[in-house]
Amino acid sequence: DMTLQVFLLPHLERFHLLYPGAKIQVTNGPSPETIRLLEQGAIDFGVVTLPVEGGDDLTLTPVGRVRDIFVAGPKFSALARGTQRLSVLAQQPLICLEPNSSTRRYLDGVFSAAGLTLTPEFELATSDLIVRFAQRNLGIGCVVEAFAKEAIAAGQVLPLHLDTPIPPRDICIARSGAPLSRAAERLLHLILT
Fold first, then answer.
1. CB neighbours of residue 64 within 10 Å
2. Taking each helix axis from N to C terminus, what angle separates 9-18 and 182-192, rounded to the nearest 10 degrees?
3. Considering the entire predicted model, what is its pTM?
4. Which of 28, 102, 110, 124 is the most exposed place for a label (fewest CB within 10 A)?
């Protein structure tokens, strides 16, 4: 959901305007699932966020960056007033993606590197649900910044600032050595230029 909405959707819109008769099948799933489908030859290419496991025979081309942030509803406004340590947030009810996503694996690694264990109160399938749960004061959500942008601007959630921000991650085009369909070739060209 994240790479589709944050990155791929504008490219698909442009492609559709240029090639209105071309058919594109978009398969939406977590990055590990996308890598698996690519390795099986079920898709022409994938758009994934790093880190990804497996895919040793794949080419990964960076095409963008995302940054993960923490957001919360008004119940947690005291935490939004200053800069927080990750260890302070680890003690709060956290809302994260399910463990089968690259985003969640990345967060698990960030917490582990800080000597902490990420134990979310809620594990959700999509990032937009994380923002909605945070709006309702069910906990502190961790999402890609672009997903929370509108809710932050509307005052529905507050961004929390870490003393050491989570490093940004790359969005990559993942490809195998298999030949591309003409539509995939043209879409990939639009994305890369």
1. 17
2. 120
3. 0.86
4. 28
Q: pLDDT tens string for the chain (193 positions)?
A: 678 888 899 999 999 999 998 888 888 888 888 899 999 999 999 999 888 877 678 899 999 999 999 999 999 999 999 999 999 999 999 999 999 888 899 999 999 999 999 999 999 988 889 999 999 999 999 999 998 999 999 999 999 999 999 999 999 999 998 899 889 999 999 999 8
Task: Find the farthest-apart pair of alpha carbons in the chain and give their distance in angstroms, rounded.
Answer: 54
CB 143 within 8 A of CB 154: no
Strand partners, 97: 124
Rounded to 10°, the helix 145-153/127-135 angle is 30
Six-digit token string for 44: 């022409």
Alpha-carbon span 183 to 193, nearest angstrom? 16
User: Which residues, at least 6 apart from 160, have a Cβ–Cβ distance to it below 8 Å?
Assistant: 69, 70, 71, 72, 76, 79, 80, 84, 89, 140
**165 phi and psi angles, rounded to 5 deg:** -60, 150
